[in-house]
Amino acid sequence: MFKQFGRFFGALALVCSGATSAWSDTYPSKPITLVVTQGPGSGSDVTGRLLAGYLGPILGQNVVVENRVGASGIIGHQSVVRAAPDGYTLLFTSTAGLFVVPVMNANAKYSLSDFVPVAPVMRAPFAVLVANTPTAPKTMAELLQAVRSKPQSFASAGIGTMTHLGSELVMRKAGVQATHVPYKGSGAALTDLMGGQVLFATDSLTASMALIRSGKLRALATTDLAREGSLPDVPTLSEAGIPGVQVAAIGGLFAPKGTPKEVVDKIAAAAAKVLANPDVAQRFAAVETDPLKVSMPAFNDLLRKEAETWSPLVRQLDLKQE
Predict the structure, then answer these.
(1) SS3 292
(2) C-alpha–C-alpha distance, residues 260 and 256, integer Å
């Protein structure tokens, strides 16, 4: 009897394995939904639609972007957690959505473990910025001296955004403090920075480069390990005397937990082809974003490091969102 059961389950395993392989060979057989948690016209939306437009022809099916906005991205993330793990619902998200919002907001009820990382997509570098005026600091050393000499304030695109946490991380490494002034988005924050209402901000080059090029803002330091190609004369934070700090928005594709590996691998291979396309690289560069061309093990390691940086910082600052 035991031998008969053994043969039965062995045959069943072979049948299931064959079915999985055949199913993955036919994937995708219908359109794929790519969930973006920000509204039309946002940076995430633009990147998601760029990605979808190139992914579709490679996979042989339309990839349809669906903006599921609300509650700081919680609605969109939760919808993907609840979706069938079949490869037909994907999520494009980044650092704040994965490692900041779930810690700040008890209603989020999701974490990185609820998703399968599918493919790295992008990395958006940041810079420490001041108004480009004769009286504004001209170096990071001058900025830190100004913060130490008397109470100062810094702007951000909102509480818990990467622009907020980036400045907090820089100040902690430098051993200084300043008052946080949150705005509703980078546009409003950088406008007041130009007007001198706040001393500095840490924001993405995507949001600030046009203002830097026009001479309205001055970049004191960039926040990656190497200098930015678009700002070759601006030192890194390490070169400016604040080593060990990296601030960038990391974005990628994710699927619901349980999505078959064969399907994940097929999407990952297609995404790698997209990032290798020179036209895509040009379009990324136009918005000061880098294609994130790393292996999946390296992407997973990067996600782990991001979690170790940002989630504890949110807890230390005791940031709450309802």
Answers:
(1) coil
(2) 10
Token readout for 46 is 């633009």
Q: Mean pLDDT across the stretch 154-179?
A: 95
- pLDDT of amino acid 321: 80
Q: Which domains occur in the chain, in start order?
A: 2-21+31-124+249-317 (3.40.190.150), 125-222 (3.40.190.10)
Give the contacts of 191 (CB within 8 A, at least 6 positions apart).
none
How far is Cα 49 from Cα 290, in angstroms, rounded to an integer?
16
Reduced to 3 DSSP states, what percent helix, strand and coil does the chain have, rounded to the nearest 5?
Answer: 50, 20, 35
Instruction: Decide: 245 and 223 in contact? Cβ < 8 Å.
Output: yes
Rounded to two decimals, the pTM is: 0.88
118: how many CB neighbours lie within 10 A of its CB?
A: 25
pLDDT value for 10:
54
Q: Which residue's entry shows tokens 């939760």? A: 78
Look up residue 112 and give its DSSP letter.
G
CB 35 within 8 A of CB 80: yes
Q: How many CB atoms lie within 10 A of CB 6?
A: 10
Instruction: Identify each DSSP E strand in 213-273 by its residue range.
Output: 217-222, 248-256
Q: Which residue has the tokens 């918005």?
A: 287
State the DSSP code for 240.
T
Contacts of range 62-67, beta carbons closer than 8 Å, 24 or more positions apart: 62/31, 62/32, 63/31, 63/32, 63/33, 63/34, 63/90, 64/31, 64/32, 64/33, 64/34, 65/34, 65/36, 66/33, 66/34, 66/35, 66/36, 67/36, 67/37, 67/38, 67/39, 67/40
Give me 224's structure tokens.
Answer: 């990656």
For residues 35 and 79, is the Cβ–Cβ distance under 8 A? yes
Q: Which two tokens stand for residue 270?
A: 């297609």
Location of structure tokens 């990628």:
252
**DSSP-derived pairing of the beta strands 153-156 and 89-94:** unpaired
* pLDDT confidence tier of residue 2, bands split at 50, 70 and 90: very low
Length, in residues, of the chain: 322
Q: Are 43 and 251 in contact (CB under 8 A)?
A: no
What are the tens digits of pLDDT across the range 120-137?
A: 999 999 999 999 999 999
- Cα separation of 38 and 62, whole Å? 21
